[in-house]
Amino acid sequence: MNLAYRDIRHNLGRFLLTCFGLSLLLGVVLSMIGIYRGLVEDALTLVRTPAVDVWVVESGTRGPFAESSRIPGDTREAIARLQGVSEAGSITYQSIETRHEGMKLRLYVVGFEPGRPGGPDRIVAGRTIARSHYEMLADKRTGLQPGDRVALGRDTFTVVGLTDGQVSSGGDPVIYITLKDSQQLQFELAPPAARREIARGNGPGNTDTVNAIVARVQPDANPENVVNAVQRWKHLAAMTQEGQEIILTRSVVERARKQIGLFTSILLVVSAVIIALILYTMTMDKIREIATLKLIGAPDRTIIGLILQQALGMGVIGFGFGALLITTFKDYFPRRVVLQPEDGLALAAAVIVVCVISSGLGVRLALKIDPATALGG
């Protein structure tokens, strides 16, 4: 006779309700892990999309994603002439906020040169940019469709194509426009400010500025050699694709990783406390039954097995429901949630360990029960 099964069936409603509450808690733990994975994926999306080997930025900076970088636009020609470089392109990055059909729209704008490195890797609907001005590619998360017209700055752009999965490290959907349009949007002064600068004798200003130059190297060339060649110029800094990804994961999402990791650990501790209290309460409810088992000669391992099996049952069922819940609703989260099998297995193992440890409180109480309690009034 399986005593744990008999006891669970006797109090099935309470046991399932307890498992459901635990599943919500474990689902939150799993979702936090998935949100962190999603943060990393989002942070690396933009840096991987151009499929380049070398990033060139302003001297003393670590790239356009970690901090501000501005370099002259004609730097691209100098980079393209370096030995080992097959092609190069100029890129700008900026965050803007606009309105479309009465709704606020937060966007991350990427300016690139069509036909050169820096644009989206694939278009899922519509076409690529064909005109030099006022056309844009938008990610599906913007909710825009081909043919929609959106105001950016003082100009109106037409959506001609859609991308998928293109977001910034902050979670804002990405749009692509031509480099000239992005430079005008980012660096051109508003008319009152421009007139003020002209009155001061500063001129209209130079908008031929970009945030980074990206380059692809020839198959037989080493990106490190190109980086070393660029770094000999005092006004520029350079890094490989791998170096740019390391900067992103260690600086842009490092604080989020620590915060989510701490929150996940707290939730696991809370789960352990809840399981321990539930098992203690369930053991208190069975004092007379456990005393009777001892009175008829049941060994301690039978009583320990009763409590341990119930603890593991709660953990396994709770984790299963929680994983199913998050898998079903992860696409409705405002940020990307990436669930990896190894993360699920690691959490399942942690839940089993937590259940075993938490059962200790109930086991300790059960072993201290006096068999004579069964004969009491």
Give the helix/strand layout:
Elements: H1 3-10, H2 12-48, E1 54-58, E2 71-72, H3 75-80, E3 85-100, E4 103-112, E5 125-126, E6 135-139, E7 149-152, E8 155-163, E9 174-178, H4 179-187, H5 191-199, E10 209-210, E11 212-217, H6 223-231, E12 236-240, H7 241-252, H8 254-285, H9 287-295, H10 300-329, H11 341-367
Parallel strand pairs: 4-9, 6-8
Antiparallel strand pairs: 1-11, 1-12, 2-10, 3-4, 3-11, 5-8, 6-9, 7-8
Explain how this protein is built.
- The chain is an alpha+beta fold and 377 residues long.
- The protein has eleven helices and twelve strands.
- The protein has helices spanning 3-10, 12-48, 75-80, 179-187, 191-199, 223-231, 241-252, 254-285, 287-295, 300-329, 341-367; strands at 54-58, 71-72, 85-100, 103-112, 125-126, 135-139, 149-152, 155-163, 174-178, 209-210, 212-217, 236-240.
- The strands form two sheets. Strands 1, 3, 4, 5, 6, 7, 8, 9, 11 and 12 form a ten-stranded mixed beta sheet that branches. A two-stranded antiparallel ribbon has the order 2-10.
- Strand 7 (149-152) and strand 8 (155-163) form a beta hairpin.
- It is elongated and about 95 Å long.
- The two termini are 27 Å apart.
- The relative contact order is 0.19.
- The model has no long low-confidence stretch (mean pLDDT 85).
Structural class: alpha+beta
The helix/strand series, from N terminus to C terminus, equals: HHEEHEEEEEEEHHEEHEHHHHH
Low-confidence runs (pLDDT<50, min 5 residues)?
none
User: Average pLDDT across residues?
Assistant: 85
Task: Please state the oligomeric state of the protein chains shown.
Answer: single chain
> Can you give the helix content as a percent range?
40-55%
- Over the alpha carbons, how many angstroms does the gyration radius reach? 30 Å
Beta fraction: 15-25%
